[in-house]
Design a protein that fits this description.
With 745 residues, the chain is an alpha/beta fold. The chain folds into four domains: 111 residues, no CATH class; 91 residues, Threonyl-tRNA Synthetase, Chain A, domain 2; 272 residues, Rossmann fold (3-Layer(aba) Sandwich); 82 residues. The protein contains 26 helices and 17 strands. The strands form three sheets. The protein has a ten-stranded mixed sheet with strand order 6-5-14-13-12-7-11-10-8-9, with helices on both faces. The protein has a four-stranded antiparallel sheet with strand order 1-2-4-3.
Length: 745
């Protein structure tokens, strides 16, 4: 393609030659006969060492170096066939656009849109219906003005006043012929219009008289009202509308290519400005600008060397160029495309101020933590889901940006799964996690005093032992029951295995990890829980203001698969939460404004970074949801620990293992035994523990282990006597499930 600067270069060269005729022009006179002879001999030049290469010879396509080091080398050779994928190869790698739009396949979005339309028009009808008497009064007061305007307009029309300027112009030009022609035309118009007006007056008066005499009262009232309203509408003022708008529409205008190019040109990026200065766009649109949710979407390629990160860094300038609030403008990179492919989404309203759909779990419903659950919406108002199982998560932000509220929201989701066992620690000590902790948590503490630290340390030590127990249980399960060697929803339902979900959440976790005496132990336990816990059903969530190596140890942050980053102040903090080089890839939580509370970047759920506005649940709302979660747990008999007012378990007497003691007193040659026989032998084994036990006490002690008593028959004095007892094989099975030992006997 010919560049516009080529012509300038040609004219500059011609001007220089005209100014200095003696200057060399770069050309010479060539004898055509000699040139043809040289070309004919060039084919044999390789055989003759004394042959001179021709100036017209074609470069060797094999890539051999020319004898003349100053000879130009052609890089783009048209004679060489282009290498690369063919048409079918490019077709296989092509990205197909969906035939049916995503919003059309979503029943939830269709319901939301339908409900919004119904509410909109119901509001408009109600608004105007309530004010209809006021509208009628305004029209009645304006009716005299309207009548005067109607009469005056009729008179001007009959007198042909619209043609008067033309006739006056003919008079000023003293054009008698034209004036006489226009006068005759006016006389004809006036006669015809006068006749029409007189007939209309007679018909109107006759109709009015007929209505007055013959029509019922309601028809007379309707007729007079209609005439009054019509005259009132004719008499209205331009700056005083009778009917006001029921809904104030946003001032957002349709996004067009001109607006996008204007905004990109205002960023001060040299490559874009240079392209636009030469008459080019500076941005290549790869798709039409379309409506995408409550906003507009533009997509295309930036100039060579310009990245999406360059645009994100100037987001405030971009918003100024688009004349939109900062919270409406969201430039994004496309992970599957090159770094210069920009997706610009411009919303109708500020993301933080736009109305969000109602959270499905706010009023009803329970949760399965092994399945995705909606916790927020993206810029387009679509729900974003999170699966809390098999993850460890990190939440980072500066103070007062919604970090604790987001952690509490995730805990409310976990609380709505009655199987989940919650361990919540509010190290800030303000009580933000109390709605969840006091209602459903198995363990809960708030504050950073010595008592809270000791409480947390004892609990974390127990959790580490629980982790070890779970690994043994999972290893002992048959392959058909646990094929992937990890906890599933089905295994979590079996309370006898003790593989229910455990969710550990710590707000301001730096208080524990930076503790002078126990910080190292907290770090060691947490690292183990983060690395091995997800497969065993243990979830670890940590929230902090600045997740550096001290606040959040590297062993934890490096293994956290879910990350939530609200506003941070710099690149270092951004990459600490979202991962190394996230800032360079354009994933920048620094661009969030102070008013963007709850808005964050989310990395997890098997996808790239997304901007999400989390559901806002205030303190009273959290109390209501937590109370509902408590009722579900009470009904299922799964409420425990702190929520029941129970203190952490402490060993007050000698430690013992009931199942192991039963195996010790019931030998392998005795497959079944009466309960009273077992209690008698246990009392002989450990009198300080089992003295006074009866069959009922033994039955109650075996229930938590999933062992039930059976009927055992014995022949006494020639008769069969049935009594309650135990089967040794059941004890072996319970030990195998508990300790992961297949051959406990």
């Amino acid at each position: 393609m010919k560049h516009p600067d080529d012509d300038n270069e040609l004219f500059n060269r011609l001007e220089a030659e005209m100014a200095d005729p003696t200057a060399p022009t770069g050309g010479e006179v060539v004898d055509l006969d000699k040139a043809r002879s040289a070309r004919s001999e060039s084919a044999d030049s390789t055989a003759r060492p004394d042959a001179d290469p021709s100036a017209d010879s074609v470069p060797d396509p094999s890539g051999a170096e020319s004898a003349d080091p100053t000879a130009p080398v052609m890089v783009d050779q048209s004679s060489v066939k282009a290498a690369g994928p063919g048409y079918l190869g490019r077709l296989l790698a092509a990205r197909r656009r969906p035939v049916v739009p995503v919003w059309l396949k979503s029943l939830a979005e269709l319901k939301t849109a339908s409900a919004w339309v119904a509410r909109h028009y119901a509001h408009s009808v109600g608004y105007h219906a309530l004010r209809s008497p006021v509208y009628a009064a305004r029209l009645a007061f304006q009716a005299p003005t309207g009548a005067a305007r109607f009469i005056g307009g009729t008179v001007r029309w009959v007198a042909d006043r619209e043609g008067e300027p033309v006739r006056l112009a003919a008079v000023r030009r003293e054009d008698a012929a034209e004036y006489l022609k226009l006068s005759r035309q006016r006389d004809g118009r006036v006669r015809m219009r006068s006749l029409v007006t007189v007939l209309a007056m007679f018909i109107g008066l006759g109709s009015a008289l007929a209505l007055y005499v013959l029509a019922p009262d309601w028809l007379q009232a309707v007729s007079v009202g209609a005439v009054t309203m019509a005259l009132g509408a004719a008499g209205r003022k331009a700056d005083a509308p009778v009917i006001h708008k029921a809904v104030e529409l946003p001032k957002a205008v349709k996004l067009t290519s001109d607006i996008v190019l204007r905004a990109l040109g205002a960023l001060g990026i040299p490559a874009i400005n240079q392209a636009q200065g030469k008459g080019r766009d500076g941005f290549e649109f790869t798709a039409p600008i379309t409506r995408d949710g409550p906003g507009w979407r533009a997509e295309g390629n930036l100039p060579y060397g310009v990245t999406v990160t360059d645009v994100i860094e100037r987001r405030d300038r971009l918003a100024s160029g688009l004349r939109r609030p900062l919270g409406c403008v969201w430039p994004e990179a496309v992970p599957d495309e090159h770094t210069g492919h920009l997706v610009l989404w411009v919303g109708d309203q500020d993301l933080n101020k736009s109305k969000k759909p109602a959270w499905p779990l706010a009023k009803a419903g329970t949760v399965d933590l092994f399945k995705p659950v909606a916790y927020g919406t993206d810029q387009r108002g679509r729900w974003v889901e999170i699966t809390l199982m098999y993850i460890a998560g990190v939440i980072g932000a500066i103070p007062r940006m919604g970090k604790t509220f987001l952690l509490r929201l995730l805990l409310l989701i976990a609380a709505l799964d009655p199987r989940a066992e919650l361990h919540t620690y509010d190290m800030k000590g303000t009580g933000d996690l109390d709605p969840v902790g006091n209602a459903v948590s198995h363990r809960h503490a708030a504050g950073d005093d010595d008592e809270a630290i000791a409480y947390a340390l004892a609990d974390w030590r127990a959790l580490r032992e629980e982790l070890r127990r779970r690994t043994k249980v999972i290893r002992s399960l048959p392959r058909d029951i646990c094929p992937e060697n990890k906890v599933t929803s089905t295994l979590a339902d079996k309370r006898s295995l003790g593989l229910h979900p455990i969710v550990i959440a710590v707000d301001e976790c730096q208080v524990l990890f930076e503790h002078g005496e126990h910080g190292k132990e907290f770090e060691e336990i947490a690292t183990d829980l983060v690395k091995r816990g997800p497969a065993t059903g243990i979830v670890f969530l940590a929230a902090t203001q600045r997740p550096d190596a001290k606040s959040l140890p590297t062993g934890i942050s490096a293994n956290a698969s879910a990350r939530w980053c609200l506003k941070v102040m710099g690149q270092t903090e951004n990459d600490m939460v979202l991962g190394t080089s996230a800032y360079k890839r354009g994933v920048r939580a620094t661009m969030f404004a102070w008013g963007d509370k709850g808005i964050h970047y989310f990395i997890g759920e098997g996808s790239d970074a997304r901007i999400v506005g989390s559901v806002y649940v205030d303190g009273p709302g959290a109390d209501v949801i937590a109370a509902r979660a408590r009722k579900v747990r009470e009904k299922a008999g799964l409420l425990s620990g702190h929520a029941l007012g129970e203190a952490p378990e402490t060993v007050t007497g000698p430690a013992y293992d009931l199942l192991a003691d039963i195996l010790a007193v019931v030998p392998a040659k005795e497959p079944k035994a009466w309960s009273e026989t077992v209690t008698s032998r246990l009392a002989d084994l450990r009198p300080e523990v089992y003295d006074g036990w009866d069959p009922d006490a033994l039955n109650a002690a075996l229930k938590p282990h999933g062992v039930a008593t059976i009927q055992v028959g014995r022949r006494v004095d020639g008769k069969v006597v049935n009594r309650r007892g135990i089967e040794r094989a059941h004890i072996l099975t319970a030990i195998a499930e508990r300790d992961g030992k297949r051959d406990a006997g």
